[in-house]
Amino acid sequence: MPNASTKPKHGRRTRRRQREDPARNELVSSSLESAQQCLFNQDYGTAFVHYLLALNLAPVFKDFARDSFRFTLFKWAEELDSLGRIQDLFSCYEQALELFPDDEVILNSMGEHLFRMGFRDEAAGHFHKALKMRPDYPEARENFYRVANWLVERWHFLMLNDRGRNQKYQRAIERAVQSGRSTVLDIGTGTGILGMCAKRAGAAEVYACELSKTMYELACEVVSANGLGGQISILHMKSLEMEVPRDIPQRVSLVVTETVDAGLFGEGIIESLIHAWHNLLLPRQTVDEENSEPSASGRVIPAGATVFAMAVECPEIRRHHRLCVPSVGGLSLGACGDLRSPVSCSSVPDDAMEPYTTERLSRLPGGYTALTQPFTALDIDFNNVQELEGLTSRPVHKLWLPVTHEGRLDALAVWFQLHLDQDNSLSTGPEEDTCWEQAIYPVHTTKDFALKLGDKLLVEVSCRDAYLRLCSVAVLRDGTEIRLDKPSPDLPDHGSNQNPEAQLCTALASLQTDHNKAFCVLESAEMALLNNEEYHKSFQDAVTKLFSQLKLANQHKRQNSSELFYVLDVSEGFSLLSLIAAGQGHVKAYSSVEKSKQQEVLKRLARSNNIPEESLEFWLNGAEEEQGVFQRPSTEKLWSAIMLDCVETCGLIRQKLMDKASLARCLLEEGGRIFPERIVVHGLLVESDTLLLESAVQGQEPTLGFNIAPFINQFTVPVHVFLDFSTLECKRLSESVELFVLDLMDTNANYTTRQVKVKATSAGRVTAIPFWYHIFLFEEICVSTLSQHSHWKQAAAVLQEPLEVRAGEWICLTVNLHKSTITISAQRDQPQPMD
Ligand code: 44T
Description:
The protein is α+β, with helices and mostly antiparallel strands and 835 residues long. Strands 6, 10, 11, 12, 15, 16 and 17 form a seven-stranded antiparallel beta sheet that branches. Strands 28, 30, 32, 34, 35 and 36 form a six-stranded antiparallel beta sheet that branches. Strands 3-2-1-4-5 form a five-stranded parallel beta sheet, with helices on both faces.
């Protein structure tokens, strides 16, 4: 947000500085004056143009006019934003940054616009630069911490900390280089580590490419810090854009790469290698040339991969990808129609859907059960370009898999073995002690399907768009084939206890001929929220209680008790809360759900739950203006309840929550409430190596002998997000304690820093403080973000320096809340008097 303290300055000093060319000076001074006049008249667009002109002509005034210029820019940008003139908005920022290239406030503000427009990498780059300009600038720091994960993904730390993986790559590279492959290209170099290995192994020429700007810059820093600056040539480009001799002088004899994701092909390795074989690598050695010089032929590390899969039952995956409950908060969900998470795989590629998601199976709360043995889904040789090219036209591979364990079919889990060379391989399997996640292909059929012993599951493996696609298609049971890929009427349905109207709605929904159009997509966190009975029940209880209090108060005041209650739900994304409120009767509920498909679902649910159509309205479709969000259309009555969405799925408090709460509070009728009224932050001390490994490159020892840690560790953030605390491998060193209380009904009552004393219950090294929230909706009605069915994950403050503690020792935590960002530091407390 524009810094509110940057008020325009009105000054006459401009006149005194006039020098030299009088006409020019006259123009500068009249432009500055016009700018100020326009600013006064709130004509920000014109003021901006005047400032640009004046300051370009007379840079000497830049410092003097900086604050007013920023203010003008931010105001004008707000206006352009609300008009949807995004192109113009960014060109104003670009012009502003030409004038003030190092202005951290402008950089940070441009980052915020970029972020809102979905340009996350670019946004992150701006926050990072702003922070470099002024390391103590809290706005930029807060923004940077929230996006650092996009700039340098956390797995970089894991991979660099994974010694086994590093050494295997190192051995394979050394072997190839020492056997004569001395010109090397590292595709997707990241920090430059594999390229540096090749150079140290004796390669004559090493090239590296990296498409991410931040990683490219990091690689350059790392390589020169290791004294290899002149010896490895690093290119900021995608390998697919590289050409010989423009980018590298000649074809290389070795390509090394680890551009693989949990689903193997998601980083585009197939396309990159086909391109490399055609354009960047020497041709492959043929069998009859086996004895010829290796330097004359090309090769790839890794040499190939084998992909494995198995069917699993997993409640955690299920509740994130399918509707699992018949009703929540007093609403029957039978008429929802077909709801899906955006992760859906069919053999026909659909751009709107991701074929798989990723999870570390071993860390899923509630665990998983394998329903089949692991099976080989695919084998691929990266040194065979024909095979790579043939992959997308390979016929669909059908596999019939015996069911080895009874259970609900929730997903196919996929992992692979990466064959670096004949002797070195890496496995990403769920049982391995690796940092890798597995690819998860959730099963979407809305009805639950239980596999039985003796069944055979038909899985189809294909690779049409260079993504590996796995679909559970059918089950063979007692000689009959049951299809899983089409909704079939003979499977038991959650909706069987629907009222007749709901049944009619369901039937209508499934009558849609174009199946693609019939379903409504919910993000997996939205799906998990929808499945959360406890959360909705708490809201239902809270509104019931509030309404009865308000009714009582109205009776006392002898006011018309049949008057409507106005309720506003400003939850982000899909939410049933407005409908739950409307279900109480005598309510006009406003929902902020924006997507039309999702609005249709809400309308259908209203109808099937006998909620009058006029009780539910949709609020300010597409409105961006924060202020506008809360303003009621009619002014004579205020809101009885406003529902705020306080915590992001990742486990952090939403940005600007307190501003929203203050605003919302002003719009409540007497006795009206904000839900929640209070948030209590809880946390505890733990020793967890896992959290350290995911936060920074650990230890003093150089990585494979290279100095990498200090560079990549600049991207360490003090708070780890998306944590599943229930399955985190850690030792608990204290009971949980209350860290902070946020009072949303009285935002002035909140402290910014608080000291909390915690007693260590066992000895150990405190490395992190996981934290979560108790969200008090109304009086004692509370939902916890740690609860088993929550759609929220947890966050943890990771300490820069672990703290050794003894059992019984007191630790003093300093908990700080700046805007919405919590930071925690820990110190040993002063010695306590004996107690
Ligand atoms: N991580 C898996 C993915 N690139 C591994 O920009 C494993 C995920 C993972 N550069 C938990 C654990 C793990 N040309 O910096 C990236 C990327 C770059 C390219 C130039 C290209 N054609 C490409 C393609 C990608 O390569 C780097 C590595 S890609 C993925 C690595 C520990 N969650």
